[in-house]
Amino acid sequence: MENNLLKELQETLTERIMVLDGAMGTTIRGYELTEEHARGDRFKENHEDLLNNGDILSLTRPDVIADIHKRFYEAGSDICETNTFSGTVLAQSEFFVEDPRKTGGIKSPEFFQKRVIESQFLKDLTWELNVESVKLAKEQADRVAQNDGRKRYVAGAIGPMTVSLTNVVDADDTAFRPVTFEQVKDAYRHQIDALLSADCDILMVETIFDSLNAKAALVAIKESGTDAPVIISAAVGRGGETMISAQKVEALWNTFAHVNPLAIGLNCSLGPDLMEPFLRDLGNAATTNVSCYPNAGLPNPLAPTGFDLEPSHMHDYIAGFAEEGLLNLAGGCCGNAPEHIAAIAKSVEGKAPRVVPILANV
Description:
Layout: H1 2-15, E1 18-19, H2 24-29, H3 35-39, H4 57-60, H5 62-75, E2 79-81, H6 89-96, H7 109-117, H8 120-148, E3 153-158, H9 181-197, E4 202-208, H10 211-224, E5 230-234, H11 249-256, E6 263-268, H12 272-285, E7 289-294, H13 311-323, E8 329-330, H14 338-348
Parallel strand pairs: 1-8, 2-3, 3-4, 4-5, 5-6, 6-7, 7-8
């Protein structure tokens, strides 16, 4: 079934530019939820605040998450991501396990192994969180598709985690890392297995700021045995480097080309104007589909969404990208509400997708 799905998506991407969704966090802000809403009765006594843990709303406010998916699909999204950006035991531990540094300790592989990786509470919580998040998205995908006759898809969002395998955290011991590759891989594998058990359509390793973390996620996908379509998307800085791991976009493609992803792309970090030259570089290197879902400009705490660009601005930028043949998939990251996605969907309507180059026989 997954091979048929991959073929179906590949064929669609030769016919038109597909539309991704927008920012879950930005859109959640519009519901004016409180800490009490985020906790619900289930996590009422939790010792850490949960309002910034958007993923937990799949369990405590599923009505809100379902409504957000519905709004993005109705705005024109072909693909919506699950509310699982932080759906690993390592990421969720930030909200449920006391930081040892508060009492003079350190975060180390031993801490993460005993308190996080082996925590049955965290394993059960993240499994449920991922499964329920897929269900919420699929229900809305099916409902909206029935209404307008256009098939919708669900991508399991696999975020970058709050720990880095590349970044040096101790200047006196540059070999030290708080986690090991195996621990990161195992945490991703647990999330991936949960997403697949709920029958998500696509696996989306996104907002990559550390290529080694992403490599762990992709190894976990391979070890899972799935042949589900994979999309890989990195966050880049102003110089086109992949944040902590500092790879330029051509190097990023060379790192992950062997995975044969459905698409590779750029998201988050920069507005569309600053992202454009790096999108071009990636398109020149990649021999697969290219995705782009930038922030709505750079952060601005005084703007209603926290970002400057309005739907009309995103329309014009993305339309320009499409007209120049840079895109196969388009959407929006931070600052992009359903109204932005409606404008983006309109901007790519009827425009030809980027032509994927074919490797010459050597």
